[in-house]
Design a protein that fits this description.
With 94 residues, the protein is α+β, with helices and mostly antiparallel strands. It has a single domain, classed as Phosphatidylinositol 3-kinase Catalytic Subunit, Chain A, domain 1 (Ubiquitin-like (UB roll), Roll). It contains 2 helices and 5 strands; from the N terminus they run E-E-H-E-E-H-E. It has a 5-stranded mixed beta sheet. A hairpin with a 5-residue loop joins strand 1 and strand 2. The longest helix is centred in the middle third of the chain and has 12 residues. The chain starts with 8 loop residues before the first strand and ends in a 5-residue tail after the last strand. The relative contact order is 0.27. The N terminus is likely disordered.
């Protein structure tokens, strides 16, 4: 997840239930939140489809600020080492 020459960050990532947690180190500061989220989903083996087979979209919630991170934000602009990020599935009512 890191990039050569950049100072990497270390964060704790978890799913909403807090049953799957992972400490991730050497995260490149230039990657986007979307890239981080995609790599965390794979690393944490979170479901990519719901029970009906529809794709599940996730958002990253920065626990320190209690806000959803925008997918286009650079990780180095939004996240600090030691932060906790919660991967939250988007629930569409309907």
């Amino acid at each position: 997840m890191g990039s050569a020459g950049a100072v990497g960050l270390t964060i704790d990532a978890m799913d909403v239930s807090q049953q799957k947690m992972r400490r991730v180190s050497n995260i490149g500061v230039e990657i986007t939140v979307r890239e981080l989220t995609d790599s965390l989903l794979a690393a944490m083996n979170l479901p990519q489809n719901d029970s009906d087979g529809r794709p599940v979209a996730y958002q990253a919630v920065l626990e320190r600020e209690g806000r959803h991170l925008q997918s286009w934000e650079k990780v180095g602009d939004a996240v600090k080492s030691g932060d906790r990020v919660v991967l939250q599935p988007n629930i569409d009512a309907g």
